[in-house]
Amino acid sequence: MSEAIKDQIIIGKDLFVPLLDEDTIQARVKELAAEISKDYEGKVPVFIGVLNGAFVFLSDLIKNVSIDCEVDFYKLSSYGDEKISSGRVTLLKELDCDINGRDIVIVEDIVDSGLSIKFMEDLIDRHSPQSMKVVSLLVKPKSLKYNVKIDYIGFHIPSKFVIGYGLDYMQKFRNLRAIYVLNNQSS
Ligand code: IMP
Ligand code: MG
Predict the structure, then answer these.
(1) Which residue has the higher pLDDT, 102 or 84?
(2) CA of 52 to the centre of ligand 2 (A)
(3) Residue 123 has pLDDT above 50, yes or no
(4) Is residue 10 part of a domain?
(5) Residue 1 has what pLDDT?
(6) Residue 7 domain flag
(7) Domain tally, the chain
């Protein structure tokens, strides 16, 4: 089932090496789905994915939850085409469903500074949901600058740029099944 993992990806002067292989990611996604299914038993949560990055993780996550659920998306832009966050977030797409009184699970691919999550929480709060939790496949704990609580975390990773499994560099490499980390980054 697992793809033959590439041992390196070279993009211009940048060298990316494997950080998390497909089987490791899939096993953890199943654990997170089981935990969420247990916590939301008898409820019908709305999983809100943050486009574009989170669509791969959200897809695998919901395929593994055993409860009924709904799905919607926000689209945010913060990184542009760079490897460092611009520090600004713009809302590119609003929700389609009414989340008033609903149980919300925000689904993120990665939390870096926490700005995107903070921004989302503020947006969602205005719709008066019943509850709101956050699941992120990846968290860079040393990069966190905003006071956000991530309820379900797939993996803690170093504060280095990563690609694959939904995460892009200049909009490419989202289709990789494994996650790769920039090897020649100092911090
Ligand atoms: P934050 O707002 O600083 O927490 O950044 C979160 C968003 O930036 C994520 O949803 C990603 O879209 C993007 N991002 C953060 N770190 C990376 C990375 O290492 N690779 C690709 N995108 C990233
Ligand atoms: Mg994202």
Answers:
(1) 102
(2) 6
(3) yes
(4) no
(5) 45
(6) no
(7) 1
Higher pLDDT, 185 or 16: 16
Residue 146 lies in a domain: yes
Question: Are 139 and 111 a contacting pair, CB within 8 Å?
Answer: yes
Residues with CB under 5 A from ligand 2 (ion): 50, 53, 109
Which ligand minimizes its atom distance to the CA of 165?
Answer: 1
* 65: containing domain: 21-179
* Buried b or exposed e, range 20-51, using 16+ CB within 10 angstroms: bebebbbeebeebbeebeeebeeeebbbbbbb
pTM of the model: 0.93
Q: Which residues line ligand 1 (CB under 6 A)?
A: 50, 53, 78-79, 85, 108-116, 161-162, 167
Supply the CATH number for residue 147's domain: 3.40.50.2020
- On whether residue 4 sits in a domain, the answer given is no
Query: pLDDT tens, 12-29?
Result: 889 999 999 999 999 999
| The token pair that represents 20 in the structure block | 């998390």
Would you name the residues annotated as active-site residues? 112
Asked if 45 and 69 count as a contact pair (C-beta separation under 8 A), the reply is yes
